[in-house]
Specification:
- The chain is of the alpha/beta class.
- It has 2 domains: about 10-100 and about 430-470, Roll (Urease, subunit C, domain 1); about 100-420, Alpha-Beta Barrel (TIM Barrel).
- Helix content is about 35%, strand content about 15%.
- The chain contains 17 helices and 20 strands.
- It has helices at about 10-20, 30-40, 125-135, 150-160, 200-215, 235-245, 260-265, 285-295, 300-305, 310, 315-320, 320-325, 330-335, 340-345, 350-370, 390-400, 405-420; strands at about 45-50, 55, 60-65, 65-70, 75-80, 90, 95-100, 100-105, 110-115, 115, 140-145, 170, 220, 250-255, 270-275, 295, 375, 435-440, 455-460, 460-465.
- It has a 6-stranded mixed beta sheet, with helices on both faces. A 5-stranded parallel beta sheet has the order 13-14-15-16-17, with helices on both faces. The chain has a 4-stranded mixed beta sheet with strand order 5-4-1-6.
- Strand 4 and strand 5 form a beta hairpin.
- Helix 7 (about 260-265) packs parallel to helix 8 (about 285-295).
- The radius of gyration is 22 Å and the shape is globular.
- The structure holds zinc ion.
- Zinc ion binds near residues 106, 108, 146 and 379.
- Zinc ion binds next to loops.
- InterPro entries: Amidohydro-rel, Metal-dep_hydrolase_composite, Metal_Hydrolase, Metallo-dep_Hydrolase.
- GO terms for molecular function: hydrolase activity, acting on carbon-nitrogen (but not peptide) bonds.
Length: about 475
């Protein structure tokens, strides 16, 4: 991140000055001060002046600016913030880099416990546990895209009123699937099956109405034959569900795996394709249809990578402080077990997962270059190895493998992901927006992996989490 972008005159002079005072290599003293601040979260939002940091606002590199926060929102942002109240608390982040809190469009909460998964884990305590994990890793808004239990609705409003309970939560309720099909009840451990599984278009409309009345934020459909192993949702059913949802003013996101269903869903007016197309290259007709309709595409490249990444690279746990911070102890112990790793890598599943990642990356590149709107999600939290919080940082890195610049990847995961959800109060750092941001120890615009170097997380104007090494998710 350059300290001088947007400055019209004397760029070299400004470069020299700012080089000295801020964007790189903080002095030891500055580092210690910031670390001390990071270790003591401030419970009360109040009025705060954030100073000295290089700020990426979700769209642009602003260079070194100050941000005045009041009552959880950004009141002013710029190189010279005026009218700072005498009693404003000042926080010096010299040498640090600020980015908006990440916004996930596709994740799950309270679907896991240690190395197990299933709907029996959907409890109030586990929802909060997972939202705190997301938050500690810099994801300050989470869309729980299906498989939510009944406790979701009451809890969402409570969580959204209190940032100390974790990331802001939106969700799709249980979601809408197919009898004896996706989401697979046995594989997903759905003993109480939160998904509705309509058999007729009328039942599909009724399912949407029921979920709308319960207060969902977005409708989730599963349209996948699970590799030819299961019945797929019929077009008349998803068309009825989409029509009903739109009549009620709700967005609809569809789980897909293959090109065929993706194309027909786009034709049916789906708003969000919630996974990448992984069976074959996308074609010109899909590209044109998605561009023409403004359909969102969420690649979730990490979903398949997670099947082999940790088994193939056990050294990641040592190399990646953010992974250590994100891993529940039981899952870490599993990743460190040679027998488990060998079992994961046996069979043909890994070759398929790798092929899916390559197809997904190639399709993402095609769609992004064509100007299709890209959302941000990973499916983290659905299964234990889809590691909450870390999956999101990997996804950013994978996006750069598909041709995104670090800036484009970050814009997708902040501004664009908020736009997908229709949230105009977040996703960028600007006057009037929520003060949700992540404090980084290194420049994410020069290396996207620096999004993991988290020194603090702020949500709704208060520091809610500290440096990554101090975070314990268990
Ligand atoms: Zn999912």
């Amino acid at each position: 991140m350059s300290a001088v972008s947007g400055r019209a005159s004397h760029p070299l002079l400004f470069a020299a000055l700012f080089w000295l005072v801020g964007c790189t290599q903080p002095s030891a003293q500055q580092g210690d001060e910031a670390a001390a601040q990071a270790a003591s979260p401030e419970p009360d939002a109040g009025v705060v002046l954030i100073e000295g940091a290089c700020v990426f606002d979700g769209e642009r590199d602003l260079g070194i600016v100050s941000m005045l926060l009041r009552d959880g929102r950004i009141e002013a942002i710029g190189p010279d913030v005026e009218s700072v109240p005498e009693d404003a608390r000042r926080v010096d982040y010299s040498g640090r880099y600020l980015v908006p809190g990440l916004v996930s469009n596709h994740a799950h909460v309270a679907n896991t416990e240690g190395t197990e998964h299933g709907d029996r884990f959907y409890t109030r305590g586990n929802v909060i546990r997972d939202l705190r994990r997301f938050q500690a890793l810099g994801v300050t808004t989470v869309t729980a895209l299906g498989l939510n239990g009944d406790v979701f609705h009451a809890l969402r409003d409570e969580v959204n009123a209190d940032p100390s309970l974790g990331a802001s939560l939106l969700g799709a309720g249980g979601g809408i699937g197919v009898a004896d099909g996706a989401p697979p009840a046995t594989n997903m451990g759905l003993e109480h099956d939160p998904a509705l599984r309509p058999a007729t278009p009328d039942e599909a409309r009724e399912a949407v109405r029921r979920q709308a009345e319960a207060g969902i934020d977005i409708v989730k459909l599963w349209v996948d034959d699970l590799g030819g192993e299961a019945p797929i949702m019929r077009p008349d059913i998803y068309r009825a569900a989409i029509e009903e949802a739109h009549a009620l003013g709700l967005l609809v996101a569809a789980h897909i795996h293959d090109l065929g269903p993706a194309k027909d869903l786009v034709d049916a007016g789906i708003d969000v394709i919630a996974h990448g197309v992984r069976d074959r290259p996308v074609d010109a007709a899909l590209v044109a249809a998605m561009r023409g309709r403004g359909t969102w595409y969420m690649p979730t490249v990490q979903i398949d990578e997670a099947n082999y990444l940790y088994a193939e690279q056990p050294g990641l746990i040592e190399q990646e402080p953010a992974l250590r911070a994100a891993l529940p102890q039981a899952v870490r112990a599993q990743f460190e077990e040679a027998g488990w790793r060998a079992q994961q890598l046996a069979g043909d599943g890994i070759a398929k997962a790798k092929a899916a990642v390559q197809t997904n990356l190639a399709n993402l590149r095609t769609l992004h270059e064509a100007g299709v709107r890209i959302g941000f999600g990973t499916d983290s939290g659905a299964l234990p190895h889809r590691v909450i919080g870390f999956a999101e940082h990997r996804e950013l890195e994978l996006m750069t493998q598909a041709g995104f610049t670090p800036r484009q990847a970050l814009t997708t995961a902040t501004r664009d992901a908020a736009t997908l959800l229709g949230l105009d109060d977040r996703g960028t750092l600007a006057p009037g927006k929520r003060a949700d941001f992540v404090v980084l120890g290194a420049d994410p615009l020069s290396d996207i992996r620096n999004t993991r170097r988290i020194e603090a997380v702020w949500q709704a104007g208060r520091q809610v989490s500290g440096a990554i090494g101090d975070v314990a998710v268990d």
